[in-house]
Predict the structure.
Amino acid sequence: MPANLPAEAKNKYRQASLARKPEEKIRLLQEFMSMFPKHKGTENLRAQVKRKISLLKKEIEEKKQKKSGTGGPKVFIEKEGDAQIVILGPTNVGRSSLLSILTNSKVLISSYPYTTTEPTPGMFNYKDLQLQMVETPAIMEGSSEGGSWGLQTLTSARNADGIVLMVDLSQNPVEQFALISAELEKAKIVTRKPNARIEIEKKHMGAKLKFIVLGRLVDCSVKDLTRLLKSYGIRDATVKIWGEATFDDVEEAIFEGKVYRPAIILANKADNPKAAERLEQLKEVVGDEMKILVVSCTAKLGLDELGSEIFYMLNIIRIYTKDPNKRDASMRPFTIRKDSTVFDLAKRIHSDFYEQFSYAKVWSKRLRFSPQKVGGTFPLQDGDTVEIHTK
Ligand SMILES: Nc1nc2c(ncn2[C@@H]2O[C@H](COP(=O)(O)OP(=O)(O)OP(=O)(O)O)[C@@H](O)[C@H]2O)c(=O)[nH]1
Ligand SMILES: [Mg+2]
C-alpha cells in the first residue's frame, strides 16, 4: 500500500483531509496524486483516491440539484431498521423479484435488462428484526470505476452491513460470480473476514493519540503506529485494534481503504433445467469460502432459509432489555455484535447505563436459574433478556 510515500505527499494528503469544501478537497487530492509515481505499487492508492474524488464530485452534484430542486438519483439509502443488506448482481438475475417477495417495496420486474436504475429499499421482517434490503442497479464490468451507476452500486455495498451476491442459474453463474468479485475487489470491499479490525476515531484537538489494542500487533509497536499516524497529521484520535494487525493494515485504515462486508451467494432461477449442473460448477469455484443458498423467486423455492442465513452472516445477536419497574421485556430487541458483554449493551443503550453500572439480571434458557445476577463482563448470547441496574 502507500508505503514510503514522500513526506510532501503525506503533507498534501493531510491538507486534503483537513479541507472543508469538497471543491478544495478535490483539488488537493488531485495534487496529492501527482506527487507519487505511477506504478504497480501505487495502483491501489490511486484507485482509492480516484474513488474519493468521484464521491466528492457526486456530493457537489447533489448539492447543486438540491439547490435547483431537480432531485436526481440517490447515491445510497440511509440506514433504517436493524441492519442494511445490499442485493448485488448483474442485470436480470432477479434482484427486483427478490425484493418484491421479501418486502412490500413496489419495484419493477422485467425481462428487459437494466430496469433498476437507482438504489431501492424495502423492509424485510425476519423474526423480530427489521432487515432493510436494498436493490442496487446492476453491477457490470467497470462498475468500480464509477460509470453506469457503478458509483451508486458500490457505494451502497460499502455503506451496508452485509451483501447478498445474486447470480442466475439460467446463465453462467461462475462468470457472474467472477464479475461481482472482481468489481468488489477493485472497489476495495472484501468479503473474506480479515485478520484485524481497526477503527480510527478522530477526536477533538488536545485529546492526543490513544491506542486500545484488544488483539496483537504483528510487525510493529504502538510507538511505530504513533509515528505513522502523526506523519499523516493525525494527532488526536482513539485507535482500536482487534485481532492480528500489521503496520500496513493500520495504514490502510488511515485511508479508509479496505472495508470488510460479510456476504452470501444467492443462486436464483433454480427452476432452470440446467440449474443443478451449473450449481456444481459454481460450488467448485467458491469452495467453502462463502455460503451458497439456492432459490427460485418465481417458483418460490429455498426462500424460507434466507432470513436465518442473513442473520447468521451478520454475526449479530438479539438482546431484549427489561425495565426493573416493568413486568415484561421489550418487544423489539437491541442488535449487537456477537461476543458482546453486558457492558457493550449498556454502552449501546446510553452512556449513563455504562458509567453508572452496578449489576445486571439476565434471563436465558441456557442458564440453570433465571434471572441470574451478573457483572458487566458477562458474555451475552442471542435471545438473552437483560435488566440493568445503575448506582
Ligand atoms: N425462470 C425464472 N425467472 C426468474 C426468476 N426470478 C426472476 N426471474 C425473471 O427474471 C427476469 C428479471 O427479473 P428482475 O427481478 O427484474 O431482475 P433484476 O435483477 O432486478 O434486473 P435489472 O433490475 O433489470 O437489472 C424477469 O423476467 C423475472 O420474471 C426465477 O427464479 N426463475
Ligand atoms: Mg431490478
